[in-house]
């Protein structure tokens, strides 16, 4: 509901309030005590007072509060594991449920908020925004900035989605920190900040393959090696065999291990110290990936090598004669 305040000329006292398109006159005692007149940027604390806030205490006029309320609502939802009901969120924000509901509906339409069983939770776009902000606060952000042009060039040549991934903080998952989607109508799509297990997915296996042997041993011992898609349980030796092949060839591949109908190929990115700090990947619908596997594998391998040289690596690249 939009509220418009009418003020008599030369006098800041409110004369009437417009709710929607209907004009209704109210005495000061029936009007809430905080209203913003947006066209002149004034908040009237007391309807019986003829003094502006900024004149009475030296403070600058307060700006519109809706953007701030949006951020406060998202912050409350981010802090709640199972989401919040409208009533509970209204209590925490000390905001009327009617106005809060309008705000939440707008956020829901933009996929920043979703509703599950009467509880509001962060939506996909809010999570994506958080991930984008997070990548700017980490050392990987400089890697992403340096490698983005190469990632874009690889997408143009592959004509499929390209991704840059790094090791997650828990050392058990890989995380996408940059994605350039194909312009094709049928394409692989994901979000920056998406995590993948290290024992499956092309880029996850590439990250794991170049970890120290002790880390690999501990990871395989402590991890339930069940593929997310299909539920097949992998034997640790099967995973070890895949990792050895990746170290030898510099290329990893996966077919529907995570998502049905999709797969990918990937190669490592070394830094100047010879440490694998990132992974280049190409992801595509499974039929297209299988039909062009050799070409896409060769492409991601070449770009992984180029990305490594860009970061200052001068050593031999795996699988390169």
Automatic annotation (TrEMBL):
Gene Ontology BP annotations: negative regulation of DNA-templated transcription
Domain (IclR-ED) ranges: 125-316
GO molecular function: DNA binding; DNA-binding transcription factor activity
Chain ranges of the HTH iclR-type domain: 64-124
Stored Gene3D superfamilies: 3.30.450.40, Winged helix-like DNA-binding domain superfamily/Winged helix DNA-binding domain (1.10.10.10)
Protein keywords: DNA-binding, Transcription, Transcription regulation
Record-given protein name: IclR family transcriptional regulator
